[in-house]
Amino acid sequence: MKTHPLLLPSIPFLALALLAARATAAEGPSAAQGPVILPPAVLALPVEQAVLTSPPNVPPPIARKHAARVVVNLEVREFTARLADGVEYTFWTYGGSVPGSFIRVREGDVVEFFFANHPSSKVPHNIDLHAVTGPGGGASATFTAPGHSSKFTFQALNAGLYVYHCATAPVPMHIANGMYGLILVEPKEGMPPVDREFYVMQGEFYTTGRYGEEGLQAFDLAKSIDERPPYVLFNGAVGSLVGDKAVTAKVGEKVRIYFGVGGPNLTSSFHVIGEIFDKVWPEGGTKFVQENVQTTMVPAGGATIVDFKVDVPGTYILVDHSLSRAFNKGALGMLKVEGPENRVIYSGKEIDAVYLGAQAEAGSEAARREAELQTRIAAEMKANPVIAGLTKEAQIEKGKQVYMGLCFACHQADGNGLPGVFPPLAKADYMLADRERAIRVVLKGMTGKVTVNGKTYDSAMPPQEAALTDQQAADVLTYVFNAWGNSGDAFNAGQVKSVRNEAR
Ligand SMILES: [Cu+2]
Q1: Model confidence over 106-140: pLDDT tens digits?
Q2: Element (H or E) spanning 255, and its range?
Q3: What is the bridge-based pairing of β-strands 180-186 and 295-298?
């Protein structure tokens, strides 16, 4: 890449950053003061190069029992990569990953921090390490234009798990583009040993497009100010800890997760479905103050350490238990555990039976009747042209089961709805007048005023498309069009499919 045209945009930016540094927490450049004169005791310390890892990996535990001068080399790179399938984003990274490289030092170490901003970068960057004692956490000392490097030294006085992040204006944008990571300052006595350690960080992405909208997505400042991210992610991409990228362990092992939240805005309710944290070091502090925790809250710009033993095999899902973020915005990962079953701790499914609660009678009656009709269809198949009629009847019975599971709660078993709240489906002029519209209501839901049999309703029906296959929707519509005195032709899956695929 050519260097000098890319440097141009940084010049007005530098001026802006300088101004911003006066008034805000954002840090601009500070003049270089020359190398620090280290006292002989520090100079005598052994020098070692820090091992940096990209997520979900964690550098090995520190074995030494004394302080060292630890050299950290961290390079900022801006590049475009996958955010989700078909979706690209220009990430700003520490060390080429989101979150950035995991740094591990020991309490009392003197850290010589070399910070480089790749020549292909478009803007300056810096780093504020929460593990640093000193103004800005290193931010002004490391403010670095593209194609430059900086160095500063700090002593890791306090043990703990700390977030680091960019503090260059506009700070939320730099963080939202992926500029955060974790630094662990191990206490002098070390961390209790475990079998596996993983590195996971949560952060939001504010794309101009909605979740899943394809193509290269730009950063949306308005959404970031409103804290309305289309994506809330673990480790920088949808699916970064899923399927063959899941983290793994074996039954009987102790697992530790170093979990941080880059934000820039949201707090995480960190939870692993099917596990209980045996120990939690809340807020990344050095005391595990709680045992047997289900969900631990991790603030933006904060971290936590959780330990748990895995007792039975299976897939454990990591989520932000603000669950729309997990199921609709991507905050979901997996831990796959292999090994022998222990059916006393967890039996797995023992019995599979139909249970429909209050609707049990109607529901299981319909199921019985469907099975009966299926047998009759098979028998009639060979010779009889009555098949068509029976197929519709079977669809009605299937549809009734769907109705009893999904629609019944609002539209009621007798199809009469509830006065003023839920419109009737029995002899409903509105529904019966337009079959295609009825499909649309079921799939896409309905809001606003609607008049059914002379009465006006102004309420909302949630979309059912996520809950229904095309065939199930066809079945339930066939049922409601033929129950309670209604009569109409059967619906088929093809008709539902074409409505489902309509552009909104
Ligand atoms: Cu930055």
Answers
A1: 999 999 999 999 999 999 999 999 999 999 999 98
A2: strand 254-263
A3: unpaired
Are residues 377 and 387 in contact, defined by beta-carbon separation less than 8 angstroms?
yes
Q: Taking the complete model, does pTM exceed 0.70, yes or no? A: no
Whole-number Å distance, alpha carbon 170 to ligand 1 midpoint, is 9
How much distance in Å is there from the Cα of 179 to the middle of ligand 1?
6
Taking only the tens place, the pLDDT of each residue in 457-478 is: 998 888 888 888 898 899 999 9
Which amino acid appears at position 51 of this protein?
V
Local structure of 494: helix, strand or coil: helix
Residue 123 alpha carbon to ligand 1 centre in Å: 7
Q: Which residue did the predictor score with more confidence, 347 or 427?
A: 427
pLDDT band of 366, cuts 50, 70, 90: confident
- Ligand 1 centroid from CA 96, angstroms: 13
What separation in Å is there between the alpha carbon of 125 and the centre of ligand 1? 4
pLDDT in tens, 384-394: 656 767 788 88
Write the pLDDT tens digit of every residue in 434-455.
999 999 999 999 999 999 999 9
* pLDDT for res 29: 67
Q: Which residues contact 73 (CB under 8 A, 6 or more apart)?
A: 49, 50, 52, 114, 116
Q: How far is the CA of 203 from the centre of ligand 1 (A)?
A: 15
**Sign, CA torsion 23/24/29/35:** positive
Ligand 1 centroid to 264 CA: how many Å? Answer: 13
Q: Count Cβ atoms within 10 A of the Cβ of residue 432 and give its class: 0-12 exposed, 13-18 middle, 19 or more buried.
A: middle
243 CA to centre of ligand 1 in angstroms: 31
Residue 210: exposure state from Cβ atoms within 10 A (0-12, 13-18, ≥19): exposed
- Centroid of ligand 1 to alpha carbon of 138 (angstroms): 13
* Structural contact between residues 92 and 133, judged by C-beta atoms closer than 8 angstroms: no
* Dist CA 229 CA 209 (whole Å): 10
Residue 151 φ/ψ, nearest 5 degrees: -140, 140
Residue 172 Cα to ligand 1 midpoint, Å, equals 9
Ligand 1 mean position to 27 CA, how many Å?
A: 10
- Rounded to the nearest angstrom, the distance between the alpha carbon of 389 and the centre of ligand 1 is 68
Mean pLDDT for 485-500 is 91
Strands, DSSP E only, in 58-190? 69-84, 87-94, 103-106, 110-117, 128-129, 148-155, 160-165, 180-186
- Distance from the CA of 130 to the center of ligand 1, in angstroms? 16
Tokens of 69: 């001068």
What is the C-alpha separation between 105 and 111, in angstroms, rounded? Answer: 8
The predicted structure's pLDDT at residue 142: 95
Q: Ligand 1 centroid vs 405 CA: distance in angstroms?
A: 51
Q: Are 319 and 335 in contact (CB under 8 A)?
A: no
Angle CA 445–446–452, to nearest 5:
125
Question: What pLDDT does residue 312 have?
Answer: 94
